[in-house]
Amino acid sequence: MTILDGLLELEALPELKISSAEIDRARKLALSRAHEVDLADAVITRVERIAAGGDRPAVRDEVRALSYAELAVEARRIAALLAREGVGPNQVVAVGGVRSVTVIAAFLALELLGAQYVPADTTWPAKRVADVLAQAGAALLFNTDRGEVTPVLAEGAAAAGVRVVRAHEAAGVAPWEGEARLDGLAQPRYVLFTSGSTGKPKGAVVEHQGMVNHLWAKIVDLDMTDRDVVAQTAPLGFDISIWQMLCPLVNGGQVHVISDEVSYDSVAFAAAVDGQGITIVELVPTMVRLLLDDLAAADAEGGLAGLRWMLATGEELPTEVARRWLLEMPQAGLVNAYGPTECSDDVTHHIVTLSDLELLRLPIGTPVVNTDLYVLRAEDDGWYACEPGETGELFVGGHGVGRGYLGDRERTCDAFFRSPFGTSLTSRLYRTGDAVKVLPQGALQYLGRVDRQVKIAGVRMELGEIEAVLQRHPSVGAVAVVVHDFGTAR
């Protein structure tokens, strides 16, 4: 079985119930942005091209540093090992272990083989690891740890009946030969599992063109060059980990993997950013607040002096946090980024300015490259386009829209539609479940959820999923889950 067996073709998706007159209005009111970017190469292809033009530093963690040439060779050794284990095109391979340069090499190895990446996060309980591996139909679990396999990964793999292959087995293996197996821009590239209201996680499948388009969106909007160094801080199960691992490698920059121990210690984190010349960081707003608090308490003057950009994502950015950043860290621009995993991560960016602070809620911005955004409201007889200032639900079209949920027809058809808008960028349309409105200056403002999904510390959670799990216990007769905000926890 391959990943394609678990995906719906475009023709199988439902049509959006909208009249022809409203289609025309929605097209005129849409926020759209087309931009020419190179989607035809795999990331490993660009890595090898950069290496051939004169080697340079590529990736680093607390133990190892690899140049572009060394990274390419390691990726090809891993590809050879996985091919020997029977991995081929359109098979899903789970990659799990402590975040490291080996994880990045493993992702590139899967690109070479035309296989798909699914992270197995060491912070998950073993039951979730088993659920993800089983639902993904993982051919194997590639463990990147240097020591023993993390217990939750070993237990989860055993429960799912998935064999484990260790990264150290690639040492001495002759590098895999051949070009990257890229079977068109619509080839699935990775699967990320998000919270699901039925009690089981749902696997969002992202295509090659969506992933690469998002990498270029960051390069274009942040004006990234080969001098930039990006901090890789996100857990592997979090969608921003993808761009943090790969984006700098597209244009000759560097990735620095920062451990959890350092990431959760604000003063140590700032020292790592300064010491490694890191220029771009992305954190959830809660962590941005803690970073500002701890640096102020430590009286750490001059910290983050070389930082060019701080991106805030994963939860709403409070105006008060933005105000503090602009005043205390004027050397680094602040970007409010928004986007769902199902659409290859961020679909909007907004560079926060002092004038934005007059708003009760900050804008989430305008579309990233090759993205169409529609604000629609539901009525009994269908969907209607919203005028600027009116509140509606956000729908996303464009290159970034993914293929749906792996092996889950019902939930795919609840959220993904055949686009009625007929633009060159759009074939599928994703219903976000987020309430938004278009501000007078043309940027979107996020107003909350239209369903029961919440975000806690940047992690998406379905209250229904938690209820479904609690309901399984024989002593629980009925359950209701609600969220209370008791302020910032430390």
TrEMBL record:
Organism from which the protein derives: Actinocorallia herbida
The protein's name in its UniProt record: Amino acid adenylation domain-containing protein
GO MF annotations, alphabetized: phosphopantetheine binding
Every AMP-dependent synthetase/ligase domain range: 51-406
Any one GO biological process: secondary metabolite biosynthetic process
Any one annotated GO CC term: cytosol
SUPFAM superfamilies membership: Acetyl-CoA synthetase-like
Record-linked PANTHER family: FATTY ACID SYNTHASE, NONRIBOSOMAL PEPTIDE SYNTHETASE
